[in-house]
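Worked example

This section walks through a single chain of length 450. The input is the sequence exactly as stored; nothing has been trimmed or padded.
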Amino acid sequence: MQIPIVNKKYDSSFGNGFYNITRELESSIPLSRALVDLCGASVPWVIMANNSAERKEKIRKFSFDYIIAYLSPFVTLPLSNRFAMKYIAKLNKNFWSNNHKAIHISNAFLKDADSMMSELYKMGKNMKKNPIESLYYKLNPNKQYNPKLDVEELLKSVGGDKEKLRQKLIRSKNAVFISDCLFTVGTVGSFLFINNEITKKKTGQSGFSAEMRMADKSIVEKRADSHEKNKKRKYLTFAALLTGATLGMSLAGFATLYSKSSNKIIKSLRDCSKYFDYTKGIYMSRLPFFLNTMVFVAATLLAARNSTERKDLAIRSGVGNTVFFGGDLVLGSLFTNLSDRIFGTKLRKDDGSNNSFINKIFPKVKHVEQVIEEVEQGKISSVNKKVSVGIFWANILILMGSIGYLIPKVINKMIRKDVDKDVQAQKSISGLANFAYSKPLRMEDFIRNK
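Given that input, the structure is written out below as tokens.
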């Protein structure tokens, strides 16, 4: 379950600023992934590219990825939330009304109307502006920002019907989720195919960019023949996969909230729907982020121009995602376990979730946000905050090193080996052809030479 964000007036000193940045990164999977990708993939992979064509292709890809990565949570999602509350749920008459933040409510409280109302009243306290709202109120100084969530006004918009309000909130959250998945994964996945075409136009070659200059143009293009013939079908496969995955997540994460069935499967899905929440209404949580990443990985493999590029991308994606989505949890658990046992810190969760055998080895740990709050409330000592933040950054640095500097070395050797095989095979074929079609030796020539 998401750790609630407590709105505090942050200290501007370097130390507190560092803690604030750390808890913001740790609470947001997209932000921490963007940091790891920048320093652990984008920069080192560009530096270690095999030639200028591959380097330019990677720069275009990473630049586009980062534009979308920041456009989605900081621009499109804040606007999508307001759009959904005004035009889909029809709960707000004013587009800039602060009541749109009712969409931030966790799915955990949307299983019944009473839980929803209780949580909405708790959310009715001061709410911090997001980047789009900050910009709006700077450009419109005459407008007064209302930090409160007016629950009574929301109820009034549905004639006091709590169940109707609940269903409208589910509908609006679902609409935002679907549009976010289709927009973010759809545009980033589509750009993979577009980027290939840009490289083809700029270089005059249709093959895998990393192989250019390793072999003759004819060999590089021959290795990409199958992709050129099937690229439209491969793109349509990606589009169908994205649509199917998005609808599947929508059904699992939101549709079951409408049902009050006691069926075990539906009840389990309702209980798991909280994993489809957005932190602060803009940061996608780990489960849907992982599932969307898998769809993007599929797009990456479909866009590959030959088997070597497919292996290249499979290794990069496979190792990168395994390390990011699993490595940080394993490393975090191990470091936390050692710290609690050796230094007496209290970073493991003590809510009963660590009673299973596997969680005794890899215990669930408190988020940096929770640790900082407990330190500020005097529940635990300040050393816990320092250790928790230290573990987070140790994790990040290990992830960057393993993804960014070991993978490219292995892959570049593999690419050269694959290309050399085709080059040698081509030479063998050419030699046989020359031998087969050489001028036949005549008897008179043999006698003359004698």
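What to look for: The chain has a mean pLDDT of 85.
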